[in-house]
Amino acid sequence: MKDLEDVAVAVPPRLDLAAWRQGFDDVFARIAGRFAQASSRKRARAYLLGLLSRSERKNGWTIAEFAGDAAPDGMQRLLNLYSWSADDVRDDLRDFVVSAFGDPAGVLICDETGFLKKGRKSAGVQRQYSGTAGRVENCQLGVFLAYAVPGGGRALIDRELYLPQSWTQDRGRCRQAGIADDTGFATKPEQARMMIERAIGAGVPFGWVAADEAYGQNTELRTWLEQRGVSYVLAVPKTFTVTTQAGRRQAAALAALVSAAGWQQLSCGDGAKGPRYYHWALIATASPVHHLLVRRPVTGGELAFFTCHAPPGTTLASLVRVAGARWAVEECFQAAKNETGLDHYQVRRYDAWYRHVTLSMLALAFLQVTAAQRGHQCLWTTYPGTGAA
C-alpha cells in the first residue's frame, strides 16, 4: 500500500512536502487510536490520503487504486465492516479545528446539502427538494454544522443524515440500510439543534449561530437558542412577522418604512472578488434583545431579512459580520465536494455514509488548517515534488 512518499497529494503553495507530511501525521495521530485493528488503522490512513489526492473522483474504487490495491474490498470493509465509531472521529475532528481556529467570536452555521442518488436503497434517499440541484431530485440530504471565525478560518465540524418519514415509518427498510430501530424521525432544525448542543457540550468557543430561512423561521429552534443564551442572526422570509412597539408587522412592510438615511453601506466579509458590500438597515422591535436586520443590494435587487437575538448595544457592524459568515458553510460544501470527495461515495448503509462523510470532513479540515496557518489563500495547489501531473 502506498504512503506519502509515493503519492500525489494536495499541498498548499510554498509549503514543502516534509512539513505537509508532518502535519498529516499529526492529524492522523489524533484518530489512530479509534481504529483498534491494525488493518483498519492502515486502511483509514490510506483512505484519508486518497481523499487528499489529486484524483478526479474519490470513491472506493479510485481510492483503492490510488492506494495500490487491486480491488476496493479493503476500502469497503473500512466503511461497512470494521469496528470503529464515526462519532468518535467527528469529536477528534472538532477538537482539531478548535485547537487551530478556536475563537469566542466564532460562528456556528447550520445548513444542508444534497447528494444525488439513483435507486431507493441508499439510507434516507427519496425524491425531495435539493438546494444543490435547485429542484426536486432523488437524493439524500445531509445537515451540517460549520465553524467560522474572524480572519477566515472555517471548517465543517458535525453532520447528520436526514431521514424522511417515509424511511422512519418503514422499519424493515431501515434495517436493510443499517438504521437502528431506535433511530426516529427528526426535522432538519431538530438535527441542527442536536449538533449545536454537542458543540456547546464540547466547549467549542463561539458567540453566534447563523443559518438560512429553513432554520430561521423555526420557532422551536429560535426559542431553544434563546433559552440557552445563544445569540443568533438567522435568515427569515419577507413574510416573517415582527412585534414592534406599534404592533405586529411583516418584515417586508417594516423595510418599506426605512428612510434613505436609515441604510448604511457595509461589507459583510470578503468574497472571491473582494469585500461584499450591501446596504443594511437595523429595525428595533418591542424587545431590547431582538432586531430585524435587512440587506439590500447596492445596485438594486431583492431584499434579504434576518431575525437577530443579541445583547443590548450590539452594533450593526457585528450583526452584519455574522450574517456574512453564513456563506462559509457554502464555501466548505463546495471545497469538500471538489477537493475531498464529500459526495463521491458509493455506499448505501447509514453508518457507511457517516464514516465516509466524516473522513472527508477531516481531510478538508486538514487542508484548511494547513493553509490558514501559513497565510495561504489557495488550499489545493499540488506540490511539484509529488509527481502530480
Chain-wise SSE layout:
Layout: H1 17-32, H2 38-51, H3 60-67, H4 73-80, H5 86-101, E1 107-116, E2 126-130, E3 135-148, E4 154-161, H6 165-168, H7 171-176, H8 188-201, E5 208-211, H9 213-216, H10 219-227, E6 231-236, E7 241-244, E8 247-250, H11 251-256, E9 264-271, E10 274-284, E11 290-297, E12 304-309, H12 316-325, H13 327-339, H14 350-373
Parallel strand pairs: 1-5, 5-6
Antiparallel strand pairs: 1-3, 2-3, 3-4, 6-12, 7-8, 9-10, 10-11, 11-12
What is the helix tally? Answer: 14
**Count of discrete structural domains:** 2
The percent range for helix content is 25-40%
- The coarse overall form would be globular
Order of SSEs, N→C?
Answer: HHHHHEEEEHHHEHHEEEHEEEEHHH
Our Rg estimate from Cα atoms comes to 22 Å
Low-confidence stretches: 380-389
**In percent terms, what proportion of residues is strand?**
15-25%
